[in-house]
Amino acid sequence: MHFTSEQRLDGDVLEREFTLGGGDVPGILWTPGSASASAPAPLILLGHPPLGLRTMYPRLVDRARQSAADGIATATLELPGSGERPRLPAVDQARADLRRVMQAGEPVGDEIVDALILPLVDRAVPEWRAALDGLLSLPEIGGPVGYSGGVISIGIRLAAIEPRIVAATLFAGSFVPRSTFEEARQVTIPLHVLLQWDDEGNDRQASLDLFDAFASEEKSLHANMGGHTGVPQFAGDVAARFFARHLK
């Protein structure tokens, strides 16, 4: 991990940009002013859709500020094929195929979902784990660790295989390969799952089936009316209380 820049937000939150893998993978770390070597902060990994960090930055920094107010550090990574990272031609083709079948009103087949999501998961999860190695080596970051957001299949695999993640908030707003349902049965950590009931691009029943598949003894499903981008502000407040309970 190599830090490339830093700035103060609101006079208290320290924002630092960094790179992994010889500079190939950009990321951002937000640390509350209360974090120190003598009082290290817990950490939340902020997931997001593959739209590019610069596009997602306003929403990510809002989430980071909210977590910092609770004394929790946050970090995120640019996803494979997004932003200034090299494109993934097969994923781009799957995305084009998805748009075509949805515009035609046709069902989205498993082969398109697999081609769209699985290469992203296979590449992103090792990068998130490498970032976690670097972040937890910092004296002001001590864990425990949570994961928040989408792509939900990335969060599920991390929750299933990464023992340092102790709680997760997942957004049921993306297509899910069938193999991810099997991974969900391996997830046992506390979960807070957010579902937009009228999400135009999401299969509601599949989201309910996925929630049922999780093996966690503590799991809650919070459904709100509205489409994909209509998540109410109070839903974020509830998620923040979930993490404060499990990470603090």
Structure report:
The chain is α/β, with parallel strands linked by helices and 248 residues long. Helix content is 41%, strand content 25%. It has a single domain (2-85, 124-247), classed as Alpha/Beta hydrolase fold, catalytic domain (Rossmann fold, 3-Layer(aba) Sandwich), CATH 3.40.50. It has seven helices and nine strands; from the N terminus they run E-E-E-E-H-E-H-H-E-H-E-H-E-H-E-H. Strands 1-2-3-5-4-6-7-8-9 form a nine-stranded mixed sheet, with helices on both faces. The longest helix has 27 residues, at 110-136.
List the helices and strands and how they pair.
Layout: E1 2-9, E2 13-20, E3 25-31, E4 41-46, H1 53-69, E5 73-77, H2 89-103, H3 110-136, E6 141-149, H4 152-161, E7 165-171, H5 178-184, E8 191-196, H6 204-213, E9 219-224, H7 233-247
Short description:
The protein is α/β, with parallel strands linked by helices. It has helices spanning 53-69, 89-103, 110-136, 152-161, 178-184, 204-213, 233-247; strands at residues 2-9, 13-20, 25-31, 41-46, 73-77, 141-149, 165-171, 191-196, 219-224. The longest helix is centred in the middle third of the chain and has 27 residues, at 110-136.
